[in-house]
Amino acid sequence: MEEVYDYLKKCGTHFLATEEGDQARVRPFGTIDMFEDKLYIQTGKVKDVSKQMLTNPKIEISAFEGGTWIRIQAIAVEDNRVEAKEHMLEAYPSLKERYSADDDNTQVLYLKDVVATISSFANEPKVIEF
To answer: What domains, with CATH codes, occur in the chain?
Structure first.
């Protein structure tokens, strides 16, 4: 899990894919946090991406860095605990301008049943599951 976390942190921006009806939706994300031995992402409940993940929690994340790329399949599970939200906001202080741990909008989700594949044109893919 730490290797996946480190990879996404190094990238800074990764792309999260969801589904809306019969249409794929992809958007850039910049948050990844490790809390209680789980990887977390963050969004706002008012956003379409939040509604999409609640309807169908199967997501994919992709990022590219230094000639390698990662694809992550996972299930996004909402965690409504204030502690999880606070941890994310401490990891990303700039989010505090728009979010707080006790508002009705801040949403953090942890990733479960993760299958991450790191690939390149030069090496065999490396698969990490947790």
So the answer is: 2-129 (2.30.110.10)
